[in-house]
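Reviewer 2 asked us to include a model.

Predict the structure of this chain.
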Amino acid sequence: MPPDFLTAQAVRTIGGGRYGRAEGRRAGKLIAPGDRITALGAGLGFLSALIMSRFDVADYQLVEADPRLAPLIRRTHELNGIDGPATIHTCVATCSRPLIEAGTVNLHVGQKFCASSLLGSSNELHEVAVPVVSLPELLGAARSNVLICDIEGAETDVFDGTPLPTVDRILMELHVHRTGLDAIRTMFRNLDAIGFGYDPELSTGGVCGFRRP
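Predicted model (structure tokens):
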């Protein structure tokens, strides 16, 4: 029996192969053997299972703020025979100094697992305080060179112009309904300022890829 936050619609989306499909299709162009990956908004672990089943990655950090999902990530990996180098962090990783200094932030937990967000949630069940860590420090400690990001609008706090020196590729899902177009324009400018260019081969619709030239 699926847990309550896996709604019937979510189960149909997963069963129909539509959950994470856009990101999965980009993985072949994004990932190379030996990559060290950090993923923000790991969800159910589908994309990490796909990548680790296809590529011999050196390290994979999964960051997921919703504490309900860590057991499901482990189960997804188990069912797909994944025993590679994966670490699950139940926290928020960000570049926002105010959030890092606060140490915790309230996650708005939605009835649908994919709707939970720092910015509020439809059909919200409750709020839960989750730890906040420095993303640059997390990336630096793991020497991650690939950053994957699907965090329901909180990407504005990640791509704020803070240098990410170990990273050479980024795959990000935009959430314009949460951030607005002005925030997306600012994020693109911030990425340009720290050396990343938009890569159309990694991009489709709201999923955008960036590389260092």
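The beta strands are 36-40, 59-63, 86-89, 92-94, 104-110, 124-134, 146-149, 169-173, 197-204, 207-211. The first helix runs from residue 8 to 15. We have added this to the supplementary material.
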